[in-house]
Write a structure and sequence with these properties.
four-stranded mixed β-sheet, alpha/beta, 9 helices, 39% helix, five-stranded mixed β-sheet, 23% strand, single chain
Length: 256
């Protein structure tokens, strides 16, 4: 069985934990940026990066996997395995996934990152057990408690000046601002793939706008919305406002 997008909410919780861990870095030496959407294919699509850390030693691209159980796989295998009790699932090789993110970043940043080292880090949650048979050459695959130590490794030489870091930061930061819309697109996929019965009963999902899917999905769940103190988004008419408000709801309920 392949791990589906139904696990994405749990993944976002894992990203929040990693974000909090990165706050322990020295803010004078490191710049942390989260939830980036890098344009690819001439802007027709985006590549989502969980976390990015800029430092004088290079750029750290972090992919978060909030999985439980035993994690096995190799650098060359297309799929890795998650074994939790008697259940065994497979998921896409996160090293390959993060390689795609790094290539998208290099293409977007262009000359700003010429000769700048990129470091791929795959972070698993506290409830995982990493059972790998061989070392990884092109990425650090670790649990969250080792993240700060890997980034703080003093053996790496300084490559970038503070001025260069600020230029890279200035180029990247606008990409965070479009994430609200992307989160709603992501939610549409979750609704359609993780709730088959709902999908079968609502064929219109295929042609509805993403924000309207978000609103429709919450009908019948008003008690949950109200219990979390979220605004009543069912009365919001503007599609843009729906996306903005629902993103705030996601952040409040799942990510804080």
């Amino acid at each position: 069985m392949v791990v589906s997008n139904s696990a994405s909410f749990k993944g976002k919780i894992g990203e929040k934990k990693v974000k909090n861990t990165l706050k322990r870095l020295n803010h004078e030496l490191y710049i942390s940026i989260h939830d980036l959407y890098i344009p690819i294919e001439n802007g027709k699509k985006t590549s989502q990066v969980d976390h990015l850390v800029l430092s004088q030693t290079g750029i750290y691209v972090i992919e978060t996997k909030n999985y439980k159980g035993w994690i096995t796989g190799s650098e060359q295998s297309q799929y890795w395995n998650q074994t939790n009790y008697k259940r065994k699932d497979k998921f896409n090789n996160p090293i390959w996934q993060n390689y795609g993110h790094i290539q998208a970043l290099k293409s977007y940043l262009g000359d700003l990152v010429e000769n700048v080292p990129f470091f791929s880090i795959i972070v698993f949650g506290d409830q995982s057990e990493l059972k790998f048979k061989s070392e990884f050459k092109n990425a650090s695959v670790i649990k969250r408690n080792r993240l700060i130590g890997v980034i703080n490794d003093s053996s790496k030489p300084n490559i970038l000046s503070q001025q260069q870091l600020r230029k890279i930061q200035h180029k990247i930061e606008p990409l965070v601002n479009i994430s609200n819309v992307e989160k709603i697109k992501w939610l549409k996929i979750i609704v359609m793939k993780s709730d088959p019965l709902y999908h079968k009963k609502n064929k219109a999902l295929k042609i509805m706008s993403a924000p309207d899917v978000a609103i429709r999905w919450l009908k019948g769940k008003e008690n949950m919305v109200n219990s979390k103190g979220a605004v009543n988004i069912l009365n919001v008419n503007s599609l843009h406002k729906k996306a903005e408000v629902f993103s705030a709801f996601l952040n409040k309920v799942y990510f804080n």
